[in-house]
Amino acid sequence: MFKGSFVALVTPMTEARALDWGALDALVDWHLEAGTHGFVPVGTTGESPTLDIPDHLKVIERVIERVGGRRPVLAGTGSNATDEAILMTREAHAMGASGSLQVTPYYNKPTQEGLFQHFTTIADAVPMPVVLYNVPGRTVVDLLPETVARLAAHPGIVALKEATGSVARIEDLKARVPDDFALLSGEDGMNVALMEAGCVGVISVTANVVPAAMAALCEAALAGDFAKARELDAPLAALHEALFLEPNPIPVKWALAAMGRMEGGIRLPLTPLSAEAQGPLRAALTELNLLGEGA
Fold first, then answer.
1. Quick check: is 253 catalytic?
2. Domain-wise residue ranges, the chain
3. Is the pTM of this model over 0.85?
């Protein structure tokens, strides 16, 4: 179920920082038409830290309703409080989500045993597939391969989004987990290399901007045609880089606003993209013919 190009979907907001439901619907429709293989609402890119629980759940529900069963929806329902993660995961399950994305608990710095118990407790509490999410650059805790191997034995824990950007880590994980446990890239600039090492898909920021290209790239890699995948990825290199000149989702929200896909609203403490970073991102978008005249 969890393979191919899954978009780490932005949460559109007006300039006044209100949720923009019309823009969200339009983004979902665009991704469906472009061939995106799945949706991840309200993860890091969806500004989960600044949405309260009611709005967090409303965004998940809206995406599920708009997708209408045509693609998997992997709901971002992780938290650094296990009980809160269970609460949101139960709600997402009741809405019809295909699975939940569970980030490693941030700030409180659990041990490996704490991580194991956290994820196992969530998987035991809610009968819905769990995708683990390891992003130590943000959470300051690293879900180690040996712990992933322990968690992969749980029937409800089915995949891992690995955002360390390490080919060696993916190769290590691949040797430890069952064949049906899905490894997903969380590092857009290395998607092809990571899929060649054993990932079966990506949870992608870049897919917000070029959904058809990311879907085609993943389809080529899944077919074993890595030469074609690299050929498709090469024109995206500058975009991958520019989308991380400042912390995600600052650049990607600016890009989508520049493309006319939504307004440029973003919630504090994140701020709009700096003038210094706008130039390289505008150049990357222009190179891909994504901006209209005067944009």
1. no
2. 4-235
3. yes
